[in-house]
Amino acid sequence: MTSTRVTTETVLSLLRSDPQSEAQLEQLAREAQKLPVPELVYLVETRASTEAAILFRVLGKVTALAVFEALPAPHQAELISALRTQQVADIIGDLDPDDRASLFDELPASVAERLMHGLDAEQREMTTAVLGYSRESIGRYMSPEVLTLSPGWSVREALAYVRAHAVGPETIYLLPVVDESRILLGVVGLRRLLVAEEDSLVGEIAHLAVSATATDDRELVARRFSAAKLLAMPIVDGEGRLVGILTVDDAVGILEEEDHEDTARTGGAEPLPSSYLSTPVLRVVRSRIVWLLVLAISAILTVQVLEVFEDKLDEVVILALFIPLLTGTGGNTGNQAATTVTRALAVGEVRVRDLPRVVWQELRVGMVLGVVLGSLGFIVAGLVYGPAIGMVMGTTLLSICTMAAIVGGLMPLVAKRVGADPAVFSNPFISTFCDATGLIIYFTIATAVLGL
Question: CBS domain: which residues (predicted)?
Answer without folding.
Answer: 142-205
